[in-house]
Amino acid sequence: MSRKPVVQGQFYPGDARQLRKTVGSFTPQVEEKERVLGLLCPHAGYAFSGPVAGKTFAGVVVPDSVVLLNPSHAYDRPAFALWTGGSWETPLGEVALHEGLTAGLAELPMTAADDRPHLPEHSGEVVLPFIQYHNPGVRMAFVCVTASAGMGELQEFGAGLARVLESSGEQDVLIVASSDMSHESGSRALEIVNRNDLLAIAQMEQLSPDGLYRTCRQEGITMCGVLPAVAMMAAVIARGGKEGVLVSRATSADSPLGSGSYVVGYAGMVFK
């Protein structure tokens, strides 16, 4: 069984030729790409977050193996839902399941093989065309991190993910966390988004999973993928990472389609 796309033609073009052209238009030419351990990418409609996603992926080498961690907007359990159903489809073609990494992740005590949270969820799907654009032959493992995952579990999962990657023998694996930043409405929406996003970004730049989790909770920052981001950073630390670097930042208000009364923030970051 393959996972069929659910938001093609809505969040991004449903035609392969147009989709490739659109992703390309968001992707600047970068002479020297770097290998990184982790990456944060937004998952809104391309009219809003496409430029941030394009700039973020443009400067990195997308290896043959990628682990994608995304939030769930519909399910709150299991805490770590591991996709085992096969390839994922987009208009650009099929993304093959990395069976070795998936099998390794299945051995972690906190993961559960459960395809259900992935089926209606857009946050992973929207990121895939950017990955495919840079590496059409990529193989991937997919984990949906839901709201029932606590801080301790996120740290344990991150450490476990790092062990799975080490034992796999593959040194060059990219961990991608899918997340938009603050979501706010009202007359001060843009002001609040700008303030809150900078607070969260500062914690990610310091590569502080605890700091990001605590700051979002204490400040009421509505970062929808904070849990995947925390798990990704924990894995990056376990793999020897030292810092997070902001590549690009924007808000929905920057788009011609945006509204000043409802604003969402977007950040693209790499971790190394």
CATH topology: Protocatechuate 4,5-dioxygenase, Chain B
Terminal Cα span:
35 Å
* Tally of distinct domains: 1
Shape, per Cα inertia axes: globular
N to C succession of SSEs:
HEHEEEEHEHHEHEEHHHEE
Class from secondary-structure proportions = alpha/beta
Query: Which whole number gives the mean pLDDT?
Result: 98
CATH architecture: 3-Layer(aba) Sandwich
Tell me the radius of gyration. Answer: 17 Å
Helix content: 25-40%
How many beta strands in the DSSP annotation? 11
Please give the CATH class.
Alpha Beta
Number of helices: 9
Question: Ranges with pLDDT <50 over ≥5 residues?
Answer: none
Could you name the CATH homologous superfamily? LigB-like
The largest β sheet comes out as: 11 strands, mixed
What is the percentage of strand-forming residues?
A: 15-25%
Descriptive terms for the model:
globular, 9 helices, alpha/beta, 272 residues, Protocatechuate 4,5-dioxygenase, Chain B, single chain
Give a summary of the structure in a few sentences.
The protein is of the alpha/beta class and 272 residues long.
Describe it.
Helices cover 37% and strands 22% of the residues. The protein is α/β, with parallel strands linked by helices and 272 residues long. It has a single domain, classed as 3-Layer(aba) Sandwich (Protocatechuate 4,5-dioxygenase, Chain B). A hairpin with a 2-residue loop joins strand 4 (88-90) and strand 5. Helix 1 (16-25) crosses helix 2 (46-58). The relative contact order is 0.21.
